[in-house]
């Protein structure tokens, strides 16, 4: 009977410590990647500002060709929206909240099934003879300790997807 009490006490202590550690973790996350594209910003910007173009370079569409996508709002730039359903990539929605030609596209991203929202920006800046494209996404995981642990892994989970998408964008823009 003593050993059972010790096991239960140990489990309770572990749960309390795990919860406590999760609460002191940062609630925010940030993922950022960039690449230099040997093309002018005026060739790259349309690929970013039109949601229909994302399927040509974003890795998620390539991983799930069966993904269903619905577009709404503006055709391009601020107010352009789309939502998707995918068995492998999750269900989500994105809306461009701002777009300054040849400079940046800002967006709001949501994954309703996970209760997760984030914001991001794709910026274009001159870099030598090319254009540096920087893709940033950040959000807040809230007060749930488990979500905060998940937030610690966002860079390693999403960063490689950003890298792959940016490489595809580079190849597409450099082909002209």
Write the layout of secondary structure elements.
Blueprint lengths: L1 H23 L3 E10 L3 H9 L9 H5 L4 E6 L6 E6 L6 E9 L3 E8 L4 E12 L2 E11 L4 H8 L1 H22 L1
Helix pairs in contact: 1-4
Q: Would you give an account of this structure?
A:
The chain has a single domain (2-175), classed as 2-Layer Sandwich (Alpha-D-Glucose-1,6-Bisphosphate, Chain A, domain 4). It has a 7-stranded antiparallel β-sheet. Helices cover 38% and strands 35% of the residues. The protein is elongated and about 75 Å long. The protein has 176 residues and is an alpha+beta fold. The chain contains 5 helices and 7 strands, in the order αβααββββββαα.
* Shape type: elongated
The name CATH uses for the topology is: Alpha-D-Glucose-1,6-Bisphosphate, Chain A, domain 4
Give the fraction of residues assigned to helices: 25-40%
Please, how many helices? Answer: 5
What number is the mean pLDDT? 87
What's the total count of β strands? Answer: 7
**Which superfamily, in CATH terms, is the homologous superfamily?**
START domain
Largest sheet properties: 7 strands, antiparallel
């Amino acid at each position: 009977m003593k050993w059972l009490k010790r096991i239960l006490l140990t489990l309770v202590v572990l749960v309390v410590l795990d919860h406590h550690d999760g609460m002191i973790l940062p609630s925010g996350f940030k993922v950022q990647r960039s690449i230099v594209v040997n093309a002018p910003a005026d060739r790259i910007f349309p690929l970013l500002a039109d949601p229909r173009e994302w399927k040509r370079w974003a890795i998620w569409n390539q991983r799930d060709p069966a993904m269903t996508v619905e577009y709404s709002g503006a055709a391009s730039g601020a107010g352009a929206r789309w939502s998707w359903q995918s068995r492998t990539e999750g269900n989500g929605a994105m809306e461009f909240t701002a777009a300054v030609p040849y400079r940046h596209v800002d967006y709001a991203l949501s994954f309703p099934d996970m209760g997760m929202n984030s914001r991001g920006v794709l910026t274009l800046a001159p870099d030598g003879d090319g254009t540096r494209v920087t893709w940033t996404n950040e959000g807040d995981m809230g007060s749930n300790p488990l979500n905060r642990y998940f937030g610690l892994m966002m860079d390693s989970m999403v960063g490689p997807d950003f890298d792959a998408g940016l490489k595809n964008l580079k190849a597409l823009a450099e082909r002209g």
